[in-house]
Write a structure and sequence with these properties.
The chain has helices at 2-12, 19-34, 50-58, 71-80, 156-161, 164-170, 190-201, 208-212, 220-229, and strands at residues 41-44, 64-67, 86-88, 91-93, 97-104, 125-134, 147-150, 173-177, 205-207, 234-237. The longest helix has 16 residues, at 19-34. The termini are far apart. By secondary structure, it is an alpha/beta fold. Helix 1 (2-12) packs across helix 2 (19-34) and helix 7 (190-201) runs antiparallel to helix 9 (220-229). The chain is globular. Strand 1, helix 3 (50-58) and strand 2 form a beta-alpha-beta unit. The chain has a single domain (18-237), classed as 3-Layer(aba) Sandwich (Rossmann fold), CATH 3.40.50.150.
Length: 238
């Protein structure tokens, strides 16, 4: 509780003591600036609902969908957001079936389909089995989507590939993570991801700060450099 209060205080004062606090602040500012009241949103990797709360706050008349494969978090979200959002217990990827899922018990936010680099000592990992779905097979073709957030600890490109029809049809804003220590454990090439979003889907990619200021998108080479250097790892495609 104290940690959350402190984070809110730092965000309010624009004190970016860490990159994650900066990204939280910028994400909140982007949602406030660009979401309309009736926009429809998707939260992939909902965790405890922090971003879903913002979606509901800034788009209260929209239809919202959230995905969280950890069973105890899914049950908590389903209760918390009854009649407010559609909650699914799926790990999203590019195909349907079942998958093993790495539940990091001493830091749940690191949990994901594959093991990755962890910024904690002695990660306590339990391998569980969860349902796996492609977003195109969950969200119907008649559903309009305006904003998608994807934070799945490295598997973001797999989620994006499983949402190709949705992305092409809607051209939504897509907030996603891509960086070393996570994405590379899924075999993600930053150039492949850039080309997929830019050439196949028709979206431009921005840093959060640039997008908020309606600035210039990043080039393919700049995106690769961000990936290699780790100076930016959250982006918006739009």
């Amino acid at each position: 509780m104290f940690k959350n209060i402190l984070k809110e205080f730092l965000i309010f004062l624009h004190l970016d003591l860490s990159k994650n606090i900066k990204y939280d602040r910028l994400t909140r500012a982007i949602l406030k600036k660009f979401l309309s009241a009736s926009d429809n949103c998707i939260d992939v990797g909902c965790h405890k609902g922090e971003i879903l709360d913002l979606m509901l706050s800034f788009a209260p008349k929209g239809t919202h969908f959230a995905f969280e494969p950890l069973p105890h978090l899914f049950e908590s979200l389903k209760t918390k957001y009854t009649h407010r959002a559609h909650i699914f217990p799926y790990a999203l990827s590019y195909s349907n079936g079942e998958t093993t899922f790495q539940f990091v018990r001493n830091d749940e936010a690191y949990s994901g389909i594959k093991k990755r680099k962890y910024a904690i000592h002695n990660p306590d990992i339990a391998e569980i089995t969860v349902a796996k779905r492609a977003l195109d097979d969950v969200i119907g073709p008649n559903q309009i989507i305006h904003f998608i957030k994807i934070d799945v600890e490295g598997g973001e490109f797999d989620v994006i590939k499983g949402a190709k029809n949705l992305l092409k049809q809607n051209k939504p804003m897509v907030l996603f993570e891509c960086g070393k220590g996570a994405s590379d454990f899924y075999g993600t090439s930053p150039l492949d991801l850039y080309n997929y979003l830019h050439n196949d889907i028709g979206l431009q990619i921005y840093t959060l700060e640039s997008f908020l200021k309606v600035g210039k998108p990043v080039s393919g080479n700049e995106f690769i450099n961000h990936f290699e250097l780790g100076n930016e790892y959250y982006f918006i495609a739009s």
